[in-house]
Amino acid sequence: MTITVTPSGQVCGAAVTGLDLTQALDATTVAAIRAAWLEHHVLSFPGQPMSDDDLERFTEYFGGFGEDPFIASVEGREHVIAVQRNANEQAPLFAENWHTDWSFQKNPPAGTCLFAITIPPQGGDTLYADQHAAFKAMPADLRERLEGKRAIHSAKMAYAPEGMYGEADQAIDRSMDIRPSPEANLTQTHRIIRAHPETGELGIFGSIGYMIGIEGMSDDEALATLLELSAWQTRDEFVYTHKWEKDMLVMWDNRSVLHRATGGYEGYDRLLHRTTIAAAA
Ligand SMILES: [Fe+2]
Fold this sequence. Notes:
- The structure is a single chain.
- This protein is an alpha+beta fold and about 280 residues long.
- It has helices spanning about 25-40, 50-60, 130-135, 140-145, 155-160, 165-170, 220-235; strands spanning about 5, 15, 40-45, 80-85, 110-120, 125-130, 150-155, 185-190, 195, 200-205, 210-215, 240, 250-255, 255-260, 270-275.
- The chain has a seven-stranded mixed β-sheet, with helices on one face. It has a three-stranded antiparallel β-sheet with strand order 12-6-14. A three-stranded antiparallel β-sheet has the order 8-7-11.
- The radius of gyration is 18 Å and the shape is globular.
- The site of fe (ii) ion (FE2) has 4 residues, from loops.
């Protein structure tokens, strides 16, 4: 099978066609997808009416499943979660802040797969910020302050009992099955500027939110630095705007891009199924 990879024309992202993801893929095709994924960081596969079995099989080709805390999996599936918002839901939008998935883990997932089941007629774009491009263009003074530094990551602002999706959020009408936990208070450090583990290309890893501090810096200095970094990381020129269609799969590289959700589809249901791809052993 020869796949066709069509770049988005934006800073990153490409569409992949010429294959059928409801069927098993041969090793050559998987290798071609992996190469395109490493090059373009965000791949979309339009027109793939996949089941959860298909989504799980696809995920396994790229490294198996990551560990997904704080969100209950869908019934009968250990590794699939529903990213969902009902038409009249009033809860704050899920994942509207820039982040890379589960960066507070020791070995965060290499990638994420998201399959579109119900897509509103407008809104709900996902934004991706290319962190290799952001690094390459980074002002020297900011880069010098971050080189060799490790950020402290934690899920506490999101998933601790007092966090954004914590106990107060449980009282509102959120359709997603979020399970806050004191475990969210744990911390983990990662280098802020680091080489991509597969390509060796330098980039910026993580963003404020899951990043709650910088080792060796006072809280005030770290906060100011993380805010300055965030403004740089998410400049328009580094952002790819992804538009969804029903039956589209997207896989992105959490080591290369930040992402965030957008709204603008009040009155419409939206449902996607998600898996994460484990970090390389
Ligand atoms: Fe996410």
